[in-house]
Design goal:
- With 401 residues, the chain is α+β, with helices and mostly antiparallel strands.
- Helix 3 runs antiparallel to helix 5 and helix 7 runs antiparallel to helix 9.
- It has 3 domains: 43 residues, no CATH class; 202 residues, no CATH class; 98 residues, no CATH class.
- The chain has 10 helices and 15 strands.
- Helices cover 29% and strands 14% of the residues.
- Pfam families: APO_RNA-bind.
- This is APO domain-containing protein.
- One of its GO terms (molecular function) is RNA binding.
């Protein structure tokens, strides 16, 4: 409505832009201000916004009303049938058969992504800010003032760039490894030093059927029972040991052999990008059956039906929770973070200018690294990366703004 009024007053069409425009009309002693906010522009809705404030909680993937209704239905079913055998995997302790092979593919795709990034980083420079978590892929760090680190106000929010590595391009948060995700789904505070912590995506694959010798896990052959809300396992230890011997004899250890040394830079970038999409899509499918929890205020995640009880949260309002995490349903971005970076059209051109940031796009760091290595721009990221937008030169800023 504001755009329409503004166009009728001046007789011209207002173009879509992210810039905030303020117009003042003085009539006597009153001033009428019309402002066009960048958040109202649907053209730039797909560009990731800056990080939320530390005191703000993550949005719930499932509405709270739906969660409350599910809890009531589960409570009523438990009252109607106090002792019942759980039939649906993986809640009953059994594996979901159609997800076992997918878990192996996701694990192999993760190894392929890590190998490809390790080969691309020495060729395409990766830089990270020494005061915040932002990174940049290119030979010259950008000049966009988005630093939120310590004393960023004294630097006018400019970044201080340093050399980065593989761990800056992609990050997999760790979680506690569960030996029995159904029988003992929670790790207590006193067990925090005795239980291994592994990448959450690896733990998700293990719970979905991946067998790794370093991380043992209990595999059942019979479903468990639920008696008044508590899980009871009637499978004898002899039957369990026998089933474990059959599994170990019939299943070889997962060994990922990645051989990409003979491929050129462009082909390696394409393979890495395809593995990235395969990994994320596989994680999304597994998370539809195997639940993953995340803290509503910090990046901590825990694969399993419940979150752990380790008092290690240092985010906002942790004093009222005695250091416990505020667990909620996780998303794929909590397990495999995209880590968005600014898209650079040409690595040999001058650094990205702060006054032209509304013309620049963004992309996940892995996607940007592979595109700079020669991979084609994926269709789902063309709009976000602003491939069809031609940014003006620095001396043309005043003409277009």
């Amino acid at each position: 409505m504001q755009r329409k009024i503004l166009s009728e007053i001046h007789g011209f069409k207002v173009l879509n832009s992210r810039i905030n425009l303020g117009f003042h009309f003085v009539t006597g002693r009153r001033t009428l201000t019309l402002r066009v906010e960048e958040e109202d522009d649907p053209v730039y809705a797909d560009v990731p916004k800056p990080c939320r404030t530390k005191s703000e909680r993550k949005p719930y993937p499932t509405p709270m009303k739906v969660l409350i209704r599910r809890a009531k239905e589960e409570r009523e079913a438990r009252k109607a049938q106090p002792c019942r055998m759980l039939e649906e995997p993986p809640d009953n302790g059994l594996l979901v058969p159609q997800l076992v092979e997918l878990a192996h593919r996701v694990y192999r795709a993760r190894e392929s992504v890590l190998f490809g990034i390790s080969k691309l980083v020495p060729v395409i420079r990766v830089q990270r800010c020494g005061h915040c978590f932002e990174i940049h892929i290119g030979y010259v760090g950008h000049e966009i003032r988005t630093c939120t680190g310590p004393k960023s106000g004294f630097r006018c929010a400019t970044h201080v760039w340093q050399n980065g590595g593989v761990q800056d391009v992609i990050y997999f948060p760790n979680c506690f490894h569960l030996y029995d995700r159904v029988g003992k789904p929670r790790i207590g505070h006193d067990e925090r030093h005795s239980v291994q912590r592994i990448p959450a995506i690896v733990e998700l694959c293990i719970q979905a059927g991946l067998d790794l010798e370093k991380y043992p896990v209990k595999r059942r052959t019979k479903p468990v029972y639920c008696i008044e809300g508590r899980i009871v396992d009637f499978e004898s230890e002899t039957e369990y040991c026998k089933s474990q011997l059959e599994i170990n004899s019939g299943t070889k250890n997962e060994q990922v052999a990645v051989q990409e040394d003979g491929k050129d830079l462009r082909e390696l970038s394409i393979v890495t990008l395809n593995s990235w999409f395969e990994m994320r899509s596989g994680v999304m499918k597994i998370m539809e059956k195997y639940s993953v929890q995340t803290c509503g205020y910090c990046p901590e995640v825990q694969v399993g039906p419940k979150g752990h009880k380790v008092r290690m949260c240092k985010a906002s309002k942790h004093q009222s929770r005695n250091g416990l995490h505020a667990w909620q349903e996780a998303t794929v971005d909590d397990v495999v973070g995209p880590n968005y970076v600014w898209h650079v059209r040409d690595l040999h051109r001058p650094a990205l200018d702060n006054n032209l940031k509304r013309y620049y796009g963004k992309a996940p760091a892995v996607v940007e690294l592979c595109v700079q290595g020669g991979a084609p721009v994926p269709d789902q990221y063309k709009s976000m990366m602003r491939v069809n937008v031609v940014p003006p030169d620095r001396d043309e800023v005043d003409l277009v703004a």
